[in-house]
Amino acid sequence: MPQQNVNADSFDDDAPDDAAPPAAAAASTDALDALLDEIDGSLQINAEQFVRSFVQKGGQ
Amino acid sequence: MISADVPPPLEVSPARRIFGLETEFGLHLDTAVTRPVTPEEVAGHLFHSVVQWGRSSNVFLPNGSRLYIDVGAHPEYATAEADNLTDLIALDKAGERIVQDLVAGGEERLRAAGVEGTIHLYKNNTDSSGNSYGCHENYLVRRRADFKAFASELLPFLVTRQIVTGAGCITRTPQGAHFSFSPRADHMWEGMSSATTRSRPMINTRDEPHANAELYRRMHVIVGDSTMAEPTTLLKMGSTDLILRIMEARIEMPGLALAREMQAIRDVAHDLTGVATVELADGRHLTAVEVQQAYLDLVVSHVGGIVAPNDEVTSILDLWQRGIDAVRNQDYSLVDTELDWAIKHKIVSRYRERLDCALDDPRLARLELAFHDVSPEHGLFYRLQSQGLVKRIVNDARIETAKTTAPTSTRAHLRGRFVTAASAAGRDYTVDWVHLKVTGEDSRTVLLKDPFRSADARVDELIDSL
Predict the structure, then answer these.
(1) B70 is catalytic
(2) Which among B200, B363, B369 is the nearest to A54, CB-wise?
(3) Is the N or the C terminus of chain B less surrounded, counting Cβ atoms within 10 Å?
């Protein structure tokens, strides 16, 4: 989903420097967003029903 | 016939300890079929290959660990005895892969039974309707007459350590949802007891050392969350071990006995800001940050003395301090590649921002399940880890080895050798934590009471006779 990539926390050239997040944090957010882009579709399919169908008696 | 010539117990340094971790996995069949399929049925198909190999759904594996179906149809894996944390983490991670390896066969058998679906195994502690299952930690301690008083000294530490080693979770209440440190905290009913499913204590005091009972007891801690990140497991087991070492040296502990443990564990769990206080028996009120800092300071003051300094101790103490600071300063980025709750908080928060939804949105609950899914393909945790967003302690090669090979420095080595040899020879045998037995006409049993002993002539003979 490339559109989400474009919208997600990309650096804005016009923004003042002090508004930019530290490089490491930004790289980590980019990696996180790339991952969320990959799985977003499958997480959204019947999320509620998927979650509700996981019921199992308690253990110890 | 029981083999004689039992060797005397080994002299063991007080710093050496046997560790074990037991994990109950959540078992979830995602299917469109309309007939109800019970978790028991799914577990039966999942364990088909285990039963074929071991003639039972309760087996000891060539790596010395135990695999079985526990109460509630939970696949459970109990690691073999490890005498260091790196071996323990490798064995624990190997267990995830061992159960995940059963999934394809289980799905195939379900398909043959007319059920098309996907099996998910979660290393977590609650299902969607709030049933809880556990992750049990075992620490072998030296036997003493005052075990209950000794164990109760650990409770303030166990109640508050969730601020560093909790798994983190979204808690849904009628008033809305919030993020908590520990999913297990709400399921604890008392401090200590010898029961587990009827009454859920933090420490199970059942006297079952699986070792020479004159020398040892097992500290069976059942309040912890299952943890995904290797550094979290290192800190969970490592900090508890260090506290136990100091307690075992009979050093006076900080007087932090809690007035109401069950209230305290819940109050701590539900306050991510770290400002909630717990009431002490002496009437003082301290935050979980203050209690954890007191324990950490105590350990630090004994480094070089009771606690021999080494790289592992240094990394445990460093992560412990950063974990406390992350809560104290409300700067989760200090630990968000190492501690489960912070890793999870980061991804849940990011996904929520993107979806612009409330915290009780089912898509976030779906994300939580994906986080704990042990599948290397579907599991979100493993995708984070392979992206370098989670730090490692052991490498994949070591985990792969641990799937089939027991640690060489404990009793697990003897069990692993025996299971491997007996099953290769096609002999009937039974095994538990302290026995190796060849069954049949010339039945022979070796009793292994010393978990530190990794070499034993009786076992060599038994294996040679197969």
Answers:
(1) yes
(2) B369
(3) N
Tokens representing A19?
Answer: 């508004």
B151 pLDDT above the threshold of 70: yes
Residue with tokens 């709400």: B186
Burial grade of B395 (CB within 10 A; 0-12, 13-18, 19 or more): exposed
pLDDT at residue A22, as a whole number: 61
Give the pLDDT score at A9: 38
Give the start-to-end residue ranges of the domains of chain B.
410-464
pLDDT at site B1: 61
Q: What pLDDT, in 10s, does the model give residues B101-145?
A: 999 999 999 999 999 999 999 999 999 998 999 899 999 999 999
Q: Read off the amino acid at residue B323.
A: G
The shortest CB-CB distance from A57 to any of B122, B131, B222 is to: B131
CB–CB of B103/B379 below 8 Å?
Answer: no
To which residue do tokens 């301090």 refer?
A: B321
CA distance B29 to chain A (A): 7
**Residue B196's pLDDT band (boundaries 50, 70, 90)?**
low
Q: Kindly state the average pLDDT of the residues B197-222.
A: 90
Residues pairing with B446 in the sheet? B436
Is the entire prediction scored with pTM above 0.90?
yes
Q: Do A39 and B333 touch (CB under 8 A)?
A: no
Instruction: Give the CA-trace dihedral at B328, B290, B218, B67, to 10 degrees.
Output: -20
Given A47, A52, A58, which is nearest B131 (Cβ)?
A58
Cα–Cα distance between B316 and B168 in angstroms, integer?
Answer: 20
Beta bridge partners of B303: B307
ipTM of the complex: 0.92
Determine the residue type at B230: E
Contact present, B190 and B200 (Cβ < 8 Å): yes
pLDDT at A29 over 80: yes
Task: Return the number of CB contacts < 8 Å for A and B.
Answer: 107
CB spacing of B72 vs A32 below 8 angstroms: no
Choice among B70, B87, B92, B225 that is catalytic = B70
Residue B383 is encoded by which pair of tokens? Answer: 């995708």
Amino acid B35 reads: R
